[in-house]
């Protein structure tokens, strides 16, 4: 078919980070690009229900609580407790700023946005709910996910929430039970504990966040418990009973936990069920996710899928890079030098966690001769000054080549700190010696790299 048989070279469905990355990359490469969005504003779940609102709320909670704990304020007799409404106030402003900024990308680059639910009717045609039809040579599906809602749980009950609806919680609860101890569950556990709510965190597995380095997981478990979070592992719900004055979680083990409110944070479903996939012969898996190859192509080579709708790692950061990679592939380039594997993880618990590269467990299983260098934040002048002494940086490196193999960090600003190690790890030329030989500003948290590198270096014989 000739180009003028199509309205677009690329049509993207969903304006989250995955869709935006794909649309902008393809447009900058000179393609005719359009995008559909069923929500009334662009930005995706990332901007409206996921990353941005949760991180904005977390920041407000942490900074407010730090002020409240400050001995100077205590001495002045200031003892107040902010309301949920006050804590949330800043979030709406940040979302609005994000939407305005992201909208300007589409406007400046002349990418038309079709507001309405998009559905495939054939291999090259999509209809939009508002009645419009578009034809495109290629597509990117970046429709994201939504919280999985088991039918037996009554999400209409005013005390039962999922990770989308919890954002509208009007009053600060006295207690909360969080079912599901993945990234979202543990982040919310930390957040609610920080504002003084009693938190029960129920984990369906044997350990928290098993994909992380064991020592980091142990540290997280210790600090959550130390802050007062009650964690229960290896539990499965039997039923969830909403009452007038609370919610009772009945566990298959026979235990019962009653709390003021209940947050379901166990699993997400891909937004593929009403996308007209049957019209084009694409079949999602039982979680509603689509399979893709290394270039993010589905079984239909002209239809790409990126972001949460393809599953792991389900991070905004990854979705954006994947979208750009798909956009480049549509342009006829492979994914260039985009690093779509070995992505960093940032988990905004208290303490914050971040890691990149391999864990000790993986290196041991692969029989890689590695060594460890550690730096405790409590020994860093900057951490002492800031009062953020909980934390550790751990560098894993090859004991012969000194190449960095993994960087694992917990503590204040871990998700920023990890990127220094990532840059050195990804470099062809640099090794652990870079940290041993380099002068770091003093006092900084970055100094942790020199301390950890020397600690590891001195173990070699
Ligand atoms: C509570 C929470 C906290 C999180 N925190 C972080 C974090 O700190 N860091 C991080 O990296 N990630 C975080 N994430 C994950 C992150 O939000 C997602 O990885 C990211 O949003 C995925 O981007 P996406 O483009 O794939 O999809 P989304 O951002 O979900 O966007 C999908 C868009 O597609 C639209 N859409 C769906 N179907 C259709 C259709 N048929 N027609 C038209 N439009 C459609 C939706 O309305 C939506 O706007 C968090 C998630 C949650 C829930």
From TrEMBL:
Its cofactor is FAD. Its main location: cytoplasm. GO terms for cellular component: cytosol. The keyword Nucleotide-binding applies. Residues 8-323 form the FAD/NAD(P)-binding domain. One of its GO terms (biological process) is 2-oxoglutarate metabolic process. InterPro entries: Class-I_Pyr_Nuc-Dis_Oxidored, FAD/NAD-bd_sf, FAD/NAD-binding_dom, FAD/NAD-linked_Rdtase_dimer_sf, Pyr_nuc-diS_OxRdtase, Pyr_nucl-diS_OxRdtase_dimer. NAD(+) binds at residues 180-187, 267. Keywords: Cytoplasm, FAD, Flavoprotein, NAD, NADP, Nucleotide-binding, Oxidoreductase. Pfam families: Pyr_redox_2 (PF07992), Pyr_redox_dim (PF02852). It is found in: Cytoplasm. Residues 344-452 form the Pyridine nucleotide-disulphide oxidoreductase dimerisation domain. Binds 1 FAD per subunit. Its EC number is 1.6.1.1. It comes from the Bacteria. It is an enzyme of class 1 (oxidoreductase). One of its GO terms (molecular function) is flavin adenine dinucleotide binding. Belongs to the class-I pyridine nucleotide-disulfide oxidoreductase family. Conversion of NADPH, generated by peripheral catabolic pathways, to NADH, which can enter the respiratory chain for energy generation. This is Soluble pyridine nucleotide transhydrogenase. The gene is sthA.
């Amino acid at each position: 078919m000739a180009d003028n048989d199509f309205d677009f070279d690329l049509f993207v469905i969903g304006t989250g980070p995955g869709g935006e990355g794909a649309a902008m990359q393809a447009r900058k490469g000179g393609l005719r690009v359009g995008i559909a969005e069923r929500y009334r504003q662009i930005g995706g779940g990332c901007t409206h229900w996921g990353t941005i609102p949760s991180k904005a709320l977390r920041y407000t909670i942490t900074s407010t609580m730090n002020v409240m704990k400050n001995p100077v304020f205590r001495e002045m007799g200031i003892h107040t407790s902010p309301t949920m409404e006050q804590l949330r106030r800043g979030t709406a402003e940040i979302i609005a700023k994000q939407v305005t900024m992201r909208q300007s990308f589409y406007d400046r680059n002349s990418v038309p946005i079709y507001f309405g639910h998009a559905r495939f009717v054939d291999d090259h045609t999509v209809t939009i709910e508002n009645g419009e039809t578009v034809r495109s040579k290629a597509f990117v599906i970046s429709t994201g996910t939504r919280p999985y809602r088991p039918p037996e749980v009554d999400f209409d009950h005013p005390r039962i929430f999922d990770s989308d609806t919890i954002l509208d919680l009007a009053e600060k609860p006295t207690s909360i039970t969080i079912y599901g101890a993945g990234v979202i569950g543990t982040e919310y556990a930390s957040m609610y504990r920080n504002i003084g709510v009693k938190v029960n965190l129920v984990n369906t597995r044997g350990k928290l966040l098993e994909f992380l380095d064991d020592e980091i997981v142990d540290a997280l478990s210790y600090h959550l418990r130390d802050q007062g979070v009650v964690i229960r592992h290896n539990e499965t719900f039997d039923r969830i009973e909403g009452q007038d004055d609370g919610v009772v979680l009945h566990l298959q083990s026979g235990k019962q936990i009653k709390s003021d409110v209940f947050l379901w944070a166990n699993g997400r479903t891909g937004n593929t069920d009403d996308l007209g996939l049957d019209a084009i012969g694409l079949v999602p898996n039982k979680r509603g996710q689509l399979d893709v190859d290394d270039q993010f192509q589905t079984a239909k080579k002209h239809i790409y899928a990126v972001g949460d709708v393809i599953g792991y790692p389900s991070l905004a950061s990854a979705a954006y890079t994947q979208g750009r990679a798909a956009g480049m592939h549509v342009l006829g380039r492979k994914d260039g030098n985009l690093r779509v594997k070995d992505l960093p993880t940032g988990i905004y618990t208290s303490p914050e966690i971040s890691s990149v590269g391999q864990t000790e467990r993986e290196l041991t299983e692969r029989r890689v001769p590695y060594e460890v260098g550690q730096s405790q934040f409590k020994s860093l002048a900057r951490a002492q000054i800031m009062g953020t002494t909980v934390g550790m940086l751990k560098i894993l490196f090859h004991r012969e080549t000194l190449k960095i193999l993994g960087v694992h960090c917990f503590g204040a600003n871990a998700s920023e700190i990890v990127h220094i190690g990532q840059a050195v790890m990804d470099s062809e030329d640099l090794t652990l010696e870079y940290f041993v030989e380099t002068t770091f500003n003093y006092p900084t948290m970055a100094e942790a790299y020199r301390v950890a590198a020397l600690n590891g270096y001195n173990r070699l014989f």
